[in-house]
């Protein structure tokens, strides 16, 4: 009983609709799907109860029968994206391979929904049922891995952060001229002689190749394979 009293109220802790009133014309799933389409097309800022109602051909007041606020709608949207991840495969026993595969799924979801990173930055730590399934699945993968429970939770958090970071880099890379321009600027500054360590590193590394999507994904995987074991054995 005490747990129920102290558990924070979320959109999932309340009935899908009130017990009274006419039969529902919509569903939370339908409203969430429409909100995802709106965010994908126009960005997170475009998602308002009024804009969503227009998209659904109804009045804003009717939506409040299903969600109590825009914040609750955003929670539903984030959890709907978490539901896109395939958690059906049983762990293979190679926890690093399995966790990297999960991370690649997470990054792909952020690439499909570029607004998701901003949403996660704003909404805090509200976890919906699909996000909790993801967390439990990741911990199941990590069961044979070294490290404490705390270290494993930190590793999962880092995995999500790197997925978000690399998804943002892919969005920036859509401007094909931007990476070469940044590299040229950095090389020019280093060549002025005021940053000897930077100049030495750039000279040793040589000219960076033009990175495509496959190269960025390979870098993402390499970083995960280096960092995750270090976090769990350190």
The biggest sheet, with number of strands, parallel, antiparallel or mixed sense and barrel status, is: none
Q: Tell me the total number of β-strands.
A: 0
Secondary structure: helix percent: 55-70%
What order do the helices and strands follow? Answer: HHHHHHHHHHHH
How would you classify the helix and strand content by structural class?
mainly alpha
**Radius of gyration computed on alpha carbons:** 22 Å
Fraction of residues in β-strands: under 5%
Keywords:
0% strand; mainly alpha; 234 residues
Q: What would a concise description of this structure say?
A:
Helices cover 65% and strands 0% of the residues. It has 234 residues and is an all-alpha fold.
Task: Report what the structure shows.
With 234 residues, this protein is mainly alpha-helical. 65% of the residues lie in helices and 0% in strands. Helix 5 (70-82) packs across helix 7 (116-123) and helix 9 packs antiparallel against helix 12. It is globular. The two termini are 40 Å apart.
Topology:
Blueprint: H1 2-6, H2 28-42, H3 49-56, H4 60-63, H5 70-82, H6 95-112, H7 116-123, H8 129-141, H9 149-172, H10 178-191, H11 196-205, H12 213-233
């Amino acid at each position: 009983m005490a747990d129920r009293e102290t558990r924070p109220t979320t959109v999932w802790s309340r009935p899908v609709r009130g017990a009274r009133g006419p039969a529902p014309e919509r569903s939370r799933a339908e409203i969430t799907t429409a909100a995802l389409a709106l965010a994908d097309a126009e960005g997170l800022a475009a998602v308002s109860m009024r804009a969503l109602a227009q998209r659904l051909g109804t009045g804003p007041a009717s939506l409040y029968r299903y969600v109590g606020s825009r914040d609750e709608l955003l929670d539903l949207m984030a959890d709907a994206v978490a539901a896109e991840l395939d958690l059906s495969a049983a762990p293979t026993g190679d926890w690093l391979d399995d966790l990297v595969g999960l991370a690649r799924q997470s990054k792909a979801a952020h690439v499909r929904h570029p607004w998701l990173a901003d949403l996660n930055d704003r909404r805090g730590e509200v976890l919906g049922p699909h996000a909790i399934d993801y967390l439990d699945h990741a911990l199941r993968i990590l069961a044979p891995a070294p490290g404490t429970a705390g270290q494993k939770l930190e590793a999962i958090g880092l995995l999500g952060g790197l997925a978000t970071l690399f998804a943002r880099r892919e969005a920036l890379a859509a401007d094909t001229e931007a990476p070469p321009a940044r590299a040229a600027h950095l090389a020019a500054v280093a060549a002025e002689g005021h940053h000897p360590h930077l100049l030495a590193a750039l000279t040793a590394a040589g000219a960076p190749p033009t990175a495509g999507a496959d190269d960025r994904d390979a870098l993402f995987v390499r970083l995960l394979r280096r960092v995750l074991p270090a976090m769990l054995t350190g």
